[in-house]
Amino acid sequence: MPVEIVTPGQRLGHAQDYAAGPGTYVRGDFLYASVVGVKRVLVETDKKTRYLTVSKEKVQSAVPTVGNIVRGFDLKCMFIDPQHINVINIPGLLFYQITGKVIRINQREAVVSIMVIGNAPCGEDFQGIIRKQDVRQFDRDKVKISDSFRPGDIVRAKVISLGDARSYYLSTADNDFGGCAMYPISWEEMQCPKMKEIERRKCAKP
Amino acid sequence: MDRRRIPGPEASVKPIIERADDDDTLHVVPLKTIDDIRQDGRSLDKIRKAWLAPGIITQANGSAYIEFQGTKLACAVYGPRATKISAFSGKGSLNCEIKFAPFSCQKRRSPQRDPQEKELSQLLFEALAPAVRLDLLPKSTIDVFVTILQNDGNGSCLAASITAASVALADAGIEMLDQVAACSACYIDDEIWIDCTLREEEHAQGSLVLSCMPSLNEVTHMLQSGEVTVSGTIRAIEQCTEACSKIYLIMGNCLSESVRRKLEKDNALDGLNKKEG
Q1: What whole-number distance in Å separates Cα of residue B38 and Cα of residue B43?
Q2: Which of B70, B66, B67, B151 is closest to B117 using CA atoms?
Q3: Residue B231: what are its φ and ψ, rounded to 5°?
Q4: Residue B17 in 3-state DSSP?
Q5: Which chain A residues are within 8 Å of B81, Cβ to Cβ?
Q6: Of A59, A108, A155, A157, most Cβ neighbours within 10 A?
């Protein structure tokens, strides 16, 4: 199938016909491309909105953003365009979830080095912190960081704020977020696949 | 003695360089013929032949090499990376640097940063900043490094830097409103000469460097020096804008061509994998 490659500043269509997806912007009555890449039309299955997106095949590096406000895309809905059926899964759409490695902990917070944003690798080193009150939804005052994370853990979390000058604020206060490298055996315990040792962690739903 | 750089052997001799344009010959050979054809065979309103290639520096996130015959330079873009400065900023920052290679000019340039490089870097930033969507990159920095390999016209160096940096930014996948194309012009004897060489610049009464976003029809930066009439400036701006849209075409073509080549390569790889699998 012929693909249409567009460059930044190229006019893609009328703003009333399409909604602006990643890699595009609206100015006046028109939609323009803001990156180099392949132009695609995405349609939500349950809604009638048609999104225009421009993306490269491989996302080079990403920058963490808060929630899914900036990228404005919920990946739970499927995108299928009748004309472009091969386009369903586009890398770089899922931007609200990050995967990182705990580098140090103290009594108030765990410091995380962000490695992957959605499914795009993070080229440079972005630092985030999970504060004690953001670890889980219930019993927030009884959380102990040392029972939730250890240095070296791989955790899944979401970005809740741009944070302070140095680090983003992350949260694992959801069933989907938490440690995800070992086997969870309950909501608060994980088991090492090799040594079968049980340690206390905030677990992500597998 | 300079211990930081490799010195030449003690018994070295200065190379004998053949100089085509000595001071005597400067007055003998005219800049143009009677029917307005310049020394390199183009008319006054034509740019030099351009060659543009994105993605030549593999270590950088994005890069570009540009050549306007005698003016040659390379640009590398790194980032977006986390800002190291301790102040919080909701917008990304753009860090531009232009560097002349020691061998780029007729006289040797010192490897240390000099005031001209500082000024050019500032101008490059001013020309690019309106086009880059920095509001999408909180707490991040983009680094743009331009290395001038051969200088044939100071105005054209700045214009080529802006053009190359914009292509390199697009190559890095950084979101932009539009590509920035830039063009230089000189005022020589009440005439406007587009894209002047170093030798032509020596005779100029003034100069203009215009950078614009042709698709959005907006000027991002304009730099004028020398003494010119208003009508002359207006004419120069019109001609530069025209030249910019030509450069813009080259930029767009080479960028989409590089993406197409990459896609074809990926498709070929996929085909191979499927065969093996």
Answers
A1: 6
A2: B151
A3: -65, -35
A4: coil
A5: 123-125
A6: A157
Q: What pLDDT tens digit does each residue of chain A (206 aa) get? A: 567 899 999 999 998 888 887 788 899 899 999 989 888 777 655 556 677 778 765 455 566 655 432 333 333 333 333 333 333 333 333 346 788 899 999 999 999 998 887 666 776 678 889 999 999 888 888 899 999 999 998 888 888 877 787 888 888 887 877 877 788 888 888 888 888 888 898 888 77
The domain at A1-94 falls in which architecture?
A: Beta Barrel (2.40)
ipTM for the assembly: 0.82
DSSP B178-219: S--EEEEEEEETTEEEES--HHHHTT-SEEEEEEEETTTTEE
Pairing outcome for strands A168-171 and A120-131: parallel
Domain A97-200: CATH superfamily is Nucleic acid-binding proteins (2.40.50.140)
The CA distances from residue B214 to A30, B23, B107, in Å, are 15, 40, 36
Residue span(s) of chain A under CATH 2.40.50.100 come to 1-94
HEC profile of B89-126? CCCCEEEEEEEECCCCCCCCCCCCCCHHHHHHHHHHHH
What residue spans in chain A does CATH classification 2.40.50.140 cover? 97-200
CA angle B203, B227, B39 (to 5 degrees): 25
What are B210's two structure tokens? 């215009």
**Would you give the end-to-end CA distance of chain A in angstroms?**
38
What is the rounded CA–CA span in Å between residue A149 and residue A146? 6
Q: Which residues of A touch B247 (CB under 8 A)?
A: none
The reply to whether A29 touches chain B by the CB within 8 Å rule is no
Our CA-based measurement puts residue B105 at a distance from the nearest CA of chain A, in whole angstroms, of 33
| List of chain B residues whose C-beta atoms are within 8 Å of the C-beta of residue A56 | 173, 259
Q: Cα–Cα–Cα angle for A168, A169, A171, nearest 5°?
A: 135
